[in-house]
Design brief:
The protein is mostly helical and 118 residues long. The chain has helices spanning 24-31, 34-38, 40-52, 56-77, 80-100.
Amino acid sequence: MKSSNFCPNCKKNVTNGVGPSGLPEVTKFLHNLPSSHLFFHDANWHDLAYHIGRTEEDRKKADETFLENMLYTVKIECSPWAALWFKLSAYRNYYAVKLLGKRFFNYRGCGASSYTST
């Protein structure tokens, strides 16, 4: 799945790959992990979904879709011996956004229609 860095509504660049934009030290550390390269497009989709925002239900759906996308990426990109490691990384990323992502979600919405992964 390819990702776009720009919101289809406001045209702002709203993605940064894996890691919170408000915590540059954490993002810098995470960008050095192999899983960050593997999940780059999945993370960009998630960033865009968080930017489009709106409701708590939208946030939960974005987080669930993020996990589904990462697990699919592991399935199609990883050898069997690497799959276990990257699945664990996917769940780590999922629980991180589920527990800590609330403060980065745009509950006001940006005016774009909801963004779905395809």
